[in-house]
Amino acid sequence: MGRTKKVGSTGRYGVRYGLKLRKKTLEVESKQKKKHICPFCKKTGVKRIAAGIWECNKCMNKFTGKAYFPGD
Length: 72
Ligand SMILES: [Zn+2]
Description:
By secondary structure, the protein is α+β, with helices and mostly antiparallel strands.
């Protein structure tokens, strides 16, 4: 019985940590899926093609930015 209790408390901590991590990942993923405004043509056609490299599919400009967001 005592053993089960011990595992339970460790598991609870693990779930809390996992939730926090999952929330953060979800946040980043939803921001990545969102289309970004192109600094050249001001249209929302920018997508990430690699870490820190972005491409606008409206004016075909490529530019560097942050790993997950083109600006800000
Ligand atoms: Zn553009």
